[in-house]
Amino acid sequence: MDTLFTSLSSVLVIVLMVAVGYLFGRKGWMKAEHKGLIIKLIINVGMPALCFNNVFSNFTRESIASMGYYLLLPLGSMLISIAFSILLCRLLKIEKRREGGFVVMCSLSNTIFVGLPMCKGLFGDEAVMYVMFFYIVNTTLFWTLGNYLLMRSGEGNGGHVELKKLLTPPLISIAVFIPLFLIGFEPPKLLLSLSSYLSGIVTPLALLYVGFLLCEGGIRNIRIDRGLSAVMVIRFLIAPAITLGLCALMGVGGIARETFVIESAMPVMTQAVVVAGNVGADEKHLAEGMSLTTLACFVVVPLLMFVISLL
Questions:
Q1: DSSP calls for 3-48
Q2: What is the pTM of this model?
């Protein structure tokens, strides 16, 4: 019960921060034209600073040596979810413009904007390393296979992979900072202090952004059909179960297991909505899925934490 109450308290803080973003949207203090700035601050400033601070403060040579091992687990979980959702897409006879979006909603999650604040709130800074491992796999699959599936679902698109999208500031930061750490580079205390301050903007800005997206999408406009019902089941039941099973199979426990399970049950990616709109897929359906799964995750996560505590 202590675990459940602790989880509820942590999630409540996150919900309240999302509610502030929602209120800002309702009051008109946050507008659509502000979204670009917020995303740039999070992705181009906050996340590289977080990577820098985490690598040089929390990483060890042992954790980096096991990086490949920890990348395999989320990769296996996502690929199984993708295969299962493609099969389910055929069984449910999802319409063409929604096929790619359905698979992406079922199998890939909002690792940063919701997942990172959630895991930091629940497990502390130690979880950041495992969030980054999950993020590497999630982002790579989205901008390759996920982007391809969305393009195939779009009107008049044959589908192609945008490899340049993989070169995001967080991934570039990891690729640069880990080798620097391994060769023994010791950053000045000034840089560590600066990165600590800048990385602090990620959680509040991400949650304010999510709250604004919920306001912008209009919670009352969500219409739950059989496709979204299936997304909810896979997103919050099957995907975490697959991850738990792989953790047991690979002998992964502790905060690594808990972080991977929570990340696998995060909402639909915000980037998926944007890409769907650009390629002519059903962006409205993805926006509804993002809003619905974002609201639901705040109820599901404490229950997941309780289940994990019993295992």
A1: HHHHHHHHHHHHHHHHHHHHHHHHHTSS-GGGHHHHHHIIIIIIHH
A2: 0.83
